[in-house]
Design goal:
This is ParA family protein. This protein has helices at about 1-10, 15-25. It has about 25 residues and is mainly α. It has two helices and no strands. Helix 1 (about 1-10) runs antiparallel to helix 2. The N and C termini lie close together (about 10 Å).
Length: about 25
C-alpha cells in the first residue's frame, strides 16, 4: 500500500485519488 501511495503521490494524482489512497494507507 505504501509503495502504491508513493507512486501516485510522485505522479501527482488528483486530490480525490490521493485522499482515497491516504485513507487506505492510514
Amino acid at each position: 500500500m505504501t509503495t502504491t501511495y508513493a507512486y501516485w503521490n510522485n505522479k501527482g494524482g488528483t486530490g480525490k485519488t490521493s485522499l482515497c489512497f491516504q485513507s487506505l494507507t492510514f
